[in-house]
Amino acid sequence: MTKLNFLLVEDEALIREGLRSLLEKENFTKNVFEASNRAEFQEQMNKNIDIVLMDFRLLDTNGLELLGLLKQEGAYPKVVVLTGLEGTELIMNLLQSGVHGIVYKLDGYKEIVKTITKVREMGSYFSEKILKLIQTNAHRWDIVPPVVLNFPERELLKAIASGLTTKEIASELKMSDSTAETYRIRLIKKVGVHNTAGLLAYAYRNGIL
Predict the structure, then answer these.
(1) Element (H, E) at 199
(2) How many whole angstroms separate alpha carbon 31 and alpha carbon 204?
(3) How far apart are the first and last CA of the chain?
């Protein structure tokens, strides 16, 4: 059996160390490399990695941005995303990005091992829960809104989430009241919700905030 090199991308040390300890006991494991942030991830990209096990939400980046880095560098290991988030838009964005597997953290380590085994055998693997989500949302596959926003959009969301008024947001972001309101309306339209409450729900559901 050919053994695999893993890159474990997780910013919580306890989770990362625990998962590494479990992986090192598996007969399919050769090495387990680690990264806790964007810089460490980039440093590890020159390793001969077979499978990346990646938490979606990191302190200074997220899984979609790291997938973009892999493509820029011409590196194509298998990528399995681990996430505690269940936002439909998030999962669809990950699927569109070309990930080879997605595991919900609540499903536990056995599901991780199952996904690794299937990805190794077949190239990709998605649980029944993910397949049902794909089927249910197939009609809007090409119009799913993004879950990666630019810096001004994220700053606007943070200001809204902190309870600031439009006037206070404008002052915080150094823009006019009318510009702040225009940006808010544009962001609501961009993610396909109806109001500010929907915008915040979308952001929390998909790990943007």
Answers:
(1) helix 196-205
(2) 35
(3) 42
For the domain made up of 151-205, the CATH class stated in words is: mainly alpha
Q: pLDDT digits over 60-101, tens only?
A: 899 999 999 988 877 789 999 999 998 999 999 999 999 999
Does the pTM exceed 0.70? yes
DSSP string, 153-198: HHHHHHHHHTT--HHHHHHHTTS-HHHHHHHHHHHHHHHT-SSHHH
Listed in sequence order, the residues at least 6 apart from 68 whose beta carbon sits closer than 8 Å to its beta carbon are 97
State the span(s) of the chain assigned CATH 3.40.50.2300. Answer: 4-141
CATH of 4-141, one of 2.30.180.10, 2.40.290.10, 3.20.20.70, 3.40.50.2300: 3.40.50.2300
The identity of residue 181, as a single letter, is E
